[in-house]
Amino acid sequence: MLSDINDFLPSSLVVASIAAVFLWATVGLIRSIFIATKKSRARNKPSKTGTFPKRPAREPGTWVPSDFKRPIPPPYPDWSVQTTKPLPYRPHNYGPKYSITMGLRRMPWDEWIELDNQYLYFHDEKTRRIADLDRIVARTEPQALEAAYELLEEFSDYLSQRYPSLFKRTPVGIDNLLTGERFNIVERPLKQDPMQMASRLIQDDFALLLEKPDGQYYLSAGAIVMPGLWNLDERMGMPLSQIHIDHGKVPGFKEKLEKGVMSLFRRIQPDSPVQRNTWYVQGLDAVDEREFAKGAGEKNMTVENFHYRTERQTVRRLPRSGAVAFLFRTYIVPVTELAEEPYVPGRLASAIRSWDDGTAYYKGRHTFDNVLLDYLDGKQAAQVANGLDPTKEDEVRAYPY
């Protein structure tokens, strides 16, 4: 049991890594949305998943409820809680130049929430941690209550449509057909904080951000349960700028990025969700970064200790409340398993070598580069010796998967 929040505060290295993850998400979204907007206007026709419209004329901190209705997703083909494996995201690209803007793509509505055969593990871990830590890991501030209710309703509708073998929509909420849980989401007050209830439905962690009259977006509700080190309790109520500057210690954010981040969040519309992936290497097989923090500084680590950690992140605006919902799902793969995939070890080694000094620090390269890079080089050489043609990679595996 975790009885004291101070027992699992992360090391500076791990804090920097998570700050970088959130920063890369926002920076990549900013530039890519601007590019996508320009192209969409030039074509004067919508894409498959919507367009990025011109920023609406409204006063900061105000939102007129939209009549947008999320498209109903089809049931996930042949989905099974026993056999559907996690999607193999591999969002690292070749050097020599590392770019933090790569990876943004529009989000088809049938990809908003991804569930797989790790569902029960995530569900049970979230349930246990919420019981142990309560509001430290998942809660709603009073001003965000309506947005939290809206997100819970969105989850209930979407999950029963996309995963009908796991969830059933009811007149008062949603039933989990695997665990036997029945969630009443219409009674007031709810029996549990809406963010804690919502967290038990999906594998992602998530945050709700509300805009105030100063134009800043404030962390006002969320469930940051699985990563553990992205401490919701410390950051609740903070604007994004303060999260990045005071807690994330992100260099240059105030001078170079703050204005763009604010513009990004103001531009996102209910019909224009986006998604991207981030990645780094960690020293233990732990979705919970409290465990990662314990192992990050260990000496004499072998390649078997290292794991490839990737996050899939989605950003969308809720139509009724105008809140921005930021969801992120963590995937962990042993490096020794990852390196067996064709082309992947060479691309990963090239990506790691392409980092500049600042990126290398954020991603903790000094903890693994001597051991890991030699190993990846050897695996790539072995693949080529066995007939792999590096020039054919684009025909076999397209970035970023």
Summarize the structure.
By secondary structure, the protein is of the alpha+beta class. It contains 13 helices and 10 strands. The protein has helices at 12-43, 119-133, 145-162, 194-199, 232-235, 240-247, 253-267, 289-295, 335-338, 344-353, 357-362, 369-385, 393-396; strands at residues 105-106, 138-140, 167-170, 173-176, 182-184, 205-211, 217-223, 274-282, 307-317, 324-334.
Describe this structure in words.
- By secondary structure, the chain is of the alpha+beta class.
- A seven-stranded antiparallel sheet has the order 1-8-9-10-6-7-2, with helices on both faces. A three-stranded antiparallel sheet has the order 3-4-5, covered by helices on one side.
- Helix content is 36%, strand content 15%.
- It has 13 helices and ten strands.
Main sheet: which strands, in order across? Answer: 1-8-9-10-6-7-2
Which percent range fits the helix content? 25-40%
- Nearest-integer average pLDDT: 81
Q: What's the Cα radius of gyration?
A: 21 Å
List the uncertain runs: 1-53, 289-297
Q: Would you count the extended β strands for me?
A: 10
The biggest sheet, with number of strands, parallel, antiparallel or mixed sense and barrel status, is:
7 strands, antiparallel
Separation of the first and last Cα atoms: 37 Å
Helix count, per DSSP? 13
Strand content: 15-25%
Shape: globular
Class inferred from helices and paired strands: alpha+beta
The SSE string, one letter per element, is HEHEHEEEHEEHHHEHEEHHHHH
Q: In terms of topology, how is this protein built?
A:
Layout lengths: L11 H32 L61 E2 L12 H15 L4 E3 L4 H18 L4 E4 L2 E4 L5 E3 L9 H6 L5 E7 L5 E7 L8 H4 L4 H8 L5 H15 L6 E9 L6 H7 L11 E11 L6 E11 H4 L5 H10 L3 H6 L6 H17 L7 H4 L5
Antiparallel strand pairs: 1-8, 2-7, 3-4, 4-5, 6-7, 6-10, 8-9, 9-10
Helix pairs in contact: 1-7, 6-7, 10-12
